[in-house]
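My current task is to audit a protein record that another person submitted. I need someone to confirm that the token line plausibly describes how this chain folds. Take the sequence as given and treat only the tokens as open to question. This is what I was given:
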Amino acid sequence: MQSSRIAEKSTPYWWEAAPVQPLPEQPLAKQADVVIVGAGYAGLTAGLTLARAGRSVVVLDKMNPGEGASSRNGGITSGNIRLGYAELVRKYGEDHANAIEAEGKAAREFIYDFIRSEGLDCDFNLTGRFYGAIGKEQYETMARGAEKLQRTLGIESYAVPHAEQRQYLGTDYYRGGTVRMDIGGLHPAKYHAEILRITLAAGVTVHSNTAVKSITKDATGFRVETTAGTITGRQVLICTNGYADGADPWLRRRLVPVRSRIIATEELPPELMMKLMPRKMMCGESKVLGYYYRPSPDGKRILLGGRDASQSGDPAAPTVALRDGLINLFPELADVKISHSWFGNVAMHRDMLPRIFEHEGLTYATGFCGSGVVWAPWIGSRAAHKLLGDDQRKSAFDFRPMSSIPFYAGQPYFMPAFIQVYRLQDRIALARATR
């Protein structure tokens, strides 16, 4: 049984308004100041920053620009940091932990200013985000976290008790939740298309369907061998994230591509949308494998996403699971059709923090852990300033490479088992929660 029997289309909903397309073919230059591998949010933002500083830049992508996660994600500007504050302090010390948390706020502000100042037409709306608690214990912990966020970083954040929940979200599933108002939503494929537009206008050369085969160091910099020929660059920046391949086996041993799948409903009546999502907020929940969901930018559909344990093909089961999750939240949608179901790769790793680092002279901007809408442009721009020698804009995420994964060479054979364990943890937490 194929997912096409459950969803009408297996392509991203976002491609309806902003289809991903190849760029016109052009000869590969013999050399450039900087060669960037990956034409997603990070690679393009880095290229834009470098070009405006006077560098010649060539960006290479083995697919069409944006065909990976940049046009497949949920379009939520969460900028999550997967590790809690106590864990950050334990691993990196209090000063570094504080710098990491503060940079999350700076990264969102950067994105919002970037959209506004560059005039990016990407349906951005600073709606706020509701985060649901599965039990009363989780609610109390989340409420204290919201207070800390307001107190330490000045972010508008507050608790929503269960009695007031339906003012924010039309479900009784949660036992209250929290709201933070510095998170919004955008159209990710339009966002990428707009970044591509201004990057090309700045003089960056971007090549579609040009895979990198190898990178070797020489006397003048690096020789980058591709399917379209060889180019030399004084500097090379790698921004491949969840689509890193065997051309860089060292990186591949550190990044785990994990499928994230999203479904979109058919268009819903306005009165039903108002009932289910009265404030049109972005949404998430307090589970290890929690759903993330939102209204479409036009306010006519609900999009819901989560982790997908499949590793090949397009099986039906993950779409069925998401549809069941949607109905569990909103029983009113039991008979609603699913118009789209699609997936893309996010890049997870052992350290669970976005990262800028160097290895054998190459610079990397990668490891966004499912929050690339905010982190990829921010980390890409910081990496560009690193290449420019701008120490005033050094990032708190610029430190040692992430650790390699033992006995792993690119095929995440262990992920189905891990996801089953996480699901079990969620079931146990739900069973123990005071509902």
In short: The first strand starts at residue 7 and ends at 9.
